[in-house]
Amino acid sequence: MVAEAAAAIDQSVRDALPFQAIVTDLQLPDGDGRAIVRLARERLPSCPVLMMTGSGSISGSVEAIRLGAVTVLEKPVSLETLANELRQAVDDRAELEDGLDAATNAGIIGRSAAIRGVLDALFLAAPTDATILIEGETGTGKELVAKAVHRLSRRSRAPFIPVNCAALPETLVESELFGHLKGAFTGADKSREGRFQQAHRGTLFLDEIGEMPLPLQPKLLRAIQEGEVQPLGSTKAEKVDARVVAATNRKLEQQVAARTFRADLYYRLNVVPLHIPPLRERPEDVAVLAAHFLKPAKRNLTPAAIAALERYAWPGNVREMENLIQRLLVLKPQGDLDLADLPPAVRGAPASSGAPAAALPGQGVDLYAVLGDLEDRLIREALERSGGNRNQAAQSLGIKRTTLVEKLRKMARREGS
Ligand SMILES: Nc1ncnc2c1ncn2[C@@H]1O[C@H](COP(=O)(O)OP(=O)(O)OP(=O)(O)O)[C@@H](O)[C@H]1O
Ligand SMILES: [Mg+2]
């Protein structure tokens, strides 16, 4: 019995499918239940162990608690009591773990070496004023990390000001960042503070920094280097004290090589690089992330469903998982989420060239109608995956944002008519 339990615990560690709870008797045919408590604490530190005893041995019970059993139940134990105790133990543990994760890791969930590396660097760099460059694909948590940097810095009481460099037309980026005086350009009927000034004593988050127009890059460098900005239309530089955290989903180094990004600015930003790998390269984070998103709903995934999520490639990374889980919870309001509840692509339909499968029906098709439908569907899916972010949706469809916006306008007109 003890040997079998030990083997099962080992197996569950190897399969990365840890037991949610363990129930053992104190006296087992071939040994002592306390050995199981000890082993479980060692190998499965987050798995609660419940001990049952019929011997009434106080010292045995005390010893079991001392070793880390969450409770000792006096036999006979009704099934109902056992079920309640188990539920309680699992809930308590989840709460404890989540609290610990949230508190110690700034809300950044993950147990992979990559995430632990990011957290280590983040804890070291956050309290300094060092510029941080966060690189990672869409949905990997770059903004989450940037906010954690701010929260863990001595600037946490001052504002965190995000600027999405990709969302602004080139002509507006400069005044957005540095501000402008009244009359600086047509339409500037009032003076306006720039984002740098708003972030004074706080943190300026330059999102999608790879999109920063080349002509503006020297001014940005100067603002970071000298702590000085010059509003449009002004002849005087203003002092600002903003800590800069930048993020990009492109390889900035390649942009430097291609001369679309200035090397001097790159080096100035890249004082502390934080690289967040895509979720498909750290499957060990999938189960803990899924549990994190399911937690508020008090729901679970079956082991088979978790295994499928771990195999899936997650092109939209953690954001895609968060959206998927929210959708699954809506579609299935009760019970465990199983393999069959997952969309086919996630469940493990074989990988394709990227082109959706198609077959020509016997009676033929109206090619343009079919293509139109397919286009609409892919656009909706891309938007869903990006959580409504049009930049990313356009990127995942390989089209320009403006093209996407135009297509959405047409879709809306068609639906309206
Ligand atoms: N390690 C993580 N732990 C918990 N939540 C995460 C983690 N990584 C990402 N998320 C969540 O996933 C979502 C997307 O994260 P975020 O917006 O930070 O991504 P991003 O890298 O900035 O994406 P994009 O490049 O598309 O802007 C957010 O809701 C975020 O809270
Ligand atoms: Mg982002």
Textual characterization of the structure:
The protein is of the alpha/beta class and 417 residues long. It folds into four domains: 2-104, Rossmann fold (3-Layer(aba) Sandwich); 113-277, Rossmann fold; 280-347, Helicase, Ruva Protein, domain 3 (Orthogonal Bundle); 367-416, Homeodomain-like (Arc Repressor Mutant, subunit A, Orthogonal Bundle), CATH 1.10.10.60. It contains 18 helices and 14 strands. The protein has helices at 2-14, 33-43, 58-67, 79-104, 113-125, 142-151, 170-178, 195-198, 217-226, 252-257, 263-269, 286-294, 303-311, 317-331, 344-347, 367-385, 390-397, 401-416, and strands at residues 22-25, 27-28, 31-32, 49-53, 71-74, 132-136, 160-164, 179-180, 192-193, 203-207, 228-229, 238-239, 243-248, 272-276. Strand 2 (27-28) and strand 3 (31-32) form a beta hairpin. Helix 2 (33-43) runs parallel beside helix 3 and helix 16 (367-385) crosses helix 17 (390-397). Adenosine-5'-triphosphate binds at residues 108-110, 136, 138-144, 249, 289, 292, 318-319, 322, 389, 392.
How many domains? The number is 4
Percentage of residues in strands: 5-15%
For the report, how would you describe the main beta sheet?
Answer: 5 strands, parallel
Could you name the CATH class of the largest domain?
Answer: Alpha Beta
Strand order of the largest sheet: 7-10-13-6-14
Under CATH, the homologous superfamily of the largest domain reads P-loop containing nucleotide triphosphate hydrolases
Query: Can you count the beta strands?
Result: 14
Structural class: alpha/beta
Please tally the helical runs, counting DSSP H or I stretches of 4 or more residues. 18
